[in-house]
Amino acid sequence: MSGYIQEDIDPEELAHRTELASAIAGSVRDLIDATVRTEVGETDIAEARRLIAAATEILRKDQLPGPFGIRFNADGTKRSWGNAVLGRRNPIAPPVDIRHETEHSWLEVDLGPQYEGPAGLVHGGVLALVFDQLLGSTAEFQGVPGMTGTLTVRYRRGTPLGPIRGEARVDRVEGVKTFVTGTISVDGEVTAESEGIFILPRWARGEVPEAMRKSVGEG
Ligand SMILES: CCCCCCCC(=O)SCCNC(=O)CCNC(=O)[C@H](O)C(C)(C)COP(=O)(O)OP(=O)(O)OC[C@H]1O[C@@H](n2cnc3c(N)ncnc32)[C@H](O)[C@@H]1OP(=O)(O)O
């Protein structure tokens, strides 16, 4: 399976690169928020575009030929910096930090104006995106990973932009299928609930490296 890359980087260097990745993505996230909410006129827009083009040119000086993929150290520590939900170096990602407990997993994240759907509310597709990652990561953490086969979301009420909390747990495992359920809530009130069926694909059922098998849903 392409896109899974073993790339050993010593811990100190990795910590440094992680800091850089978070810093540049954070700056661009700020730019996205500023762009969505700006009220400046033509002259300021032209000047901002010139500066953004200059920054883009600097970043283009040294680029990967394609997506970031999933990168591992030999000890199994993993980097998915391009991931649309978790990606440290992806300004599209909020980014979400998922915490795993014995029985369940959870996240808390602030979804700003760039995730708007209905006025003042989070876009339904963005909530599905968050559920997909949260439920998939929960399956992975519990040792029963898979790719999303089916994801069902029930939107019970609008989810206001701002801080949300997600929770998920494995409901059951049937052969290669893991059924995971979860909720998103705001101020303790559930606004959406979801069930995902995560399936260990055929290619991962045989002899594949453990680190790769564990992350099948991510590539
Ligand atoms: C760390 C992880 C975090 C992950 C978060 C993000 C995850 C993602 O976004 S993954 C990307 C989106 N998903 C995809 O791209 C998946 C695309 N689909 C596929 O690759 C395949 O269709 C896949 C893997 C789902 C199933 O294919 P395959 O391995 O051939 O399954 P197959 O052997 O035919 O069927 C196995 C079982 O699953 C069932 N099944 C197959 N497809 C589906 C489906 N889409 N939904 C529900 N059940 C299904 C079959 O009926 C069968 O059931 P049973 O064992 O009871 O007979």
From TrEMBL:
InterPro entries per UniProt: HotDog_dom_sf, THEM4/THEM5_acyl-CoA_thioest, Thioestr_dom
Catalytic activity: hexadecanoyl-CoA + H2O = hexadecanoate + CoA + H(+); dodecanoyl-CoA + H2O = dodecanoate + CoA + H(+); (5Z,8Z,11Z,14Z)-eicosatetraenoyl-CoA + H2O = (5Z,8Z,11Z,14Z)-eicosatetraenoate + CoA + H(+); (9Z)-octadecenoyl-CoA + H2O = (9Z)-octadecenoate + CoA + H(+)
Annotated keywords: Apoptosis, Cell membrane, Cell projection, Cytoplasm, Fatty acid metabolism, Hydrolase, Lipid metabolism, Membrane, Transit peptide
Subcellular location: Cell projection, Ruffle membrane; Cytoplasm; Membrane
Keyword Cell membrane: yes
Domain Thioesterase, first and last residues per copy: 120-188
Enzyme Commission code(s) on record: 3.1.2.2
GO molecular function: hydrolase activity
UniProt KW Lipid metabolism keyword: yes
Any one biological process term the GO annotation gives: fatty acid metabolic process
UniProt-listed PANTHER family: ACYL-COENZYME A THIOESTERASE THEM4
Annotated family: Belongs to the THEM4/THEM5 thioesterase family.
Protein name: Acyl-coenzyme A thioesterase THEM4
Organism of provenance: Gordonia lacunae
